[in-house]
Design brief:
single chain, 471 residues, mainly alpha, 18 helices
């Protein structure tokens, strides 16, 4: 079923969704719980980094690797594992990813040295790279296209964003109360619970034609993403002058360009370039990557500001983001009504604009208490726009496609989420690191954040408007 991306209300948005059976609700709960758990892992350590560093003896310069060690494999291997799941079974791979994630979380909890901890974080990231695409594929094969799938995708996207925000709240409270190791223990328990519940609810699913893995495509896209994320993460810590940074900064884009060339010639490509040329798919996913990368950066940079500049404790920092979490929950529950009233396209563009407008004032953050209140209000309202984008971009990017292309389209939506969560922080952290003063670096990163959102809002508006006129 095609989704109208014009500014008028959509039939899908206004129609009453079919009621879900009890089993379908349980399946949705399990799949969304897994996505929520992965999103939680992206942020739960952010406010705990100073305490973690002192406990394990990690230098300030190496603390970012506690986050990057997870982000590298979770972003780099996403497309590859999604394709492998098509071949060998999504349920089987989903359960394997859950087991890997849970075991790695236990190892991270018990880590006795920086090396062991970072290795555990990398394995967590590998598990996440399995869980996310297989979980989303299971969701789309469980819920038929139409109101049920739209509702399921909306809930999944909202919980993904909520997980990132709530991770900061939980991380602060748990670190102050039980220590940083409790954050990793929580993830291990969550992974185990989902792993126990999933086998009895999920049925096996795989591509009916069992396509071959595009080996050259897999190597180039995985290598390109890994190199690019490594380069940006390293530059955030040490600047752009290191030989390894320069080499990977060149290799990353080069490999991604090679991936595009390979896919244009492959008989069974990992990503259909023909699909990417559809305006709704291209502009919808651009909006998704942008909203996730820029909001995750706001959370990270504001956390640094509240703790390192304002001197707030982990717990008080978490409370600031708790307000944002409440706003996200309310917005997620009402986003479908906003889409029904204004249409998918208007909601998508309006969300990007609102996120940009409320991120911009953060360049005025100061050393005084007014900065804390500014951060609280700005990121809370910006989160409203962020959630509007999350719900509407998934509908935009899967609109106008036949049923046999919906799985790939949804896979691209998932990739946009994960790549966005992965690249935003290292990219703008590297930019912030060009300033010697921490506060001025944070202001610079947040200013660029707002500018990127504004530019993408204009591009998406023009691109989708052109599509509407020519449709």
């Amino acid at each position: 079923m095609a989704i109208d991306t014009s500014s008028s209300p959509t039939p899908a948005a206004t129609a009453a969704p079919e009621k879900l059976t009890t089993r379908a609700k349980l399946v949705l709960f399990v799949l969304c719980a897994a996505q929520f758990m992965v999103a939680l892992d992206f942020s739960i350590l952010n406010v705990a980094l100073p305490v973690l560093g002192k406990d394990l003896g990690m230098s300030q310069a190496n603390l970012q690797w506690a986050v990057t060690a997870f982000a590298l494999p979770s972003g780099g291997f996403l497309l590859l594992f999604g394709r492998i799941a098509d071949l060998y079974g999504r349920r089987r791979l989903f359960l394997s990813g859950l087991a890997l994630f849970a075991v790695a979380s236990v190892l991270a909890t018990l880590a006795w040295s920086p090396g062991v901890f970072l290795a555990a974080r990398a394995v967590q990231g590998l598990g996440a790279a399995v869980i996310v695409p297989t979980g989303m594929s299971l969701l789309t094969t469980t819920f038929p296209e139409g109101p049920q799938r739209e509702r399921a995708l909306g809930i999944s996207g909202t919980l993904l964003s909520l997980g990132f925000t709530i991770g900061v709240v939980l991380g602060g409270a748990m670190t102050d109360t039980f220590g940083w190791r409790s954050t990793m223990a929580l993830l291990g328990i969550a992974g185990a619970v989902v792993l126990v519940a999933a086998p009895g609810l999920l049925t096996e699913s795989r591509h009916p034609l069992r396509p071959r893995v595009d080996i050259p495509g897999a190597i180039t896209v995985t290598g390109g993403l890994l190199a690019l994320i490594y380069a940006l993460s390293s530059a955030a810590q040490r600047g752009f002058g290191g030989a390894d940074v320069i080499v990977t900064l060149i290799a990353g884009p080069a490999l991604l360009i090679a991936f595009v060339v390979v896919e244009s010639r492959a008989a069974e490509p990992m990503v259909s370039l023909k699909m990417l040329r559809r305006p709704t798919v291209a502009w919808g996913n651009l909006a998704g990557i942008t909203t996730f990368s820029m909001m995750s950066t706001v959370v990270f940079m504001t956390t640094l500001y509240l703790q390192e500049v304002r001197g707030l404790s982990s717990f008080r920092t978490g409370l600031v983001f708790g307000v944002q979490g409440l706003a996200a929950a309310v917005t997620g529950m009402t986003a479908a009504r906003v889409i029904g009233r204004f249409g998918v396209r208007t909601t998508l563009i309006g969300g990007l604009v609102l996120q940009a407008v409320l991120t911009a004032p953060l360049v005025l953050l100061s050393t005084g208490p007014s900065g804390t209140w500014l951060a609280l209000v700005a990121i809370t309202v910006a989160c409203v726009g962020h959630l509007w984008v999350i719900v509407s971009y998934g509908l935009t990017a899967t609109s106008g496609l036949p049923n046999d292309e919906q799985g790939l389209a949804t896979g691209l939506v998932t990739s946009s989420q994960q790549v966005g969560l992965t690249i935003g922080i290292p990219l703008l952290s590297a930019l912030a690191a060009t300033r010697t003063d921490l506060l001025s670096g944070i202001r610079l990163a947040l200013g660029v954040d707002a500018g990127v959102l504004a530019v993408v809002a204009v591009l998406v508006a023009v691109g989708l408007n052109r599509r509407t006129r020519t449709a």
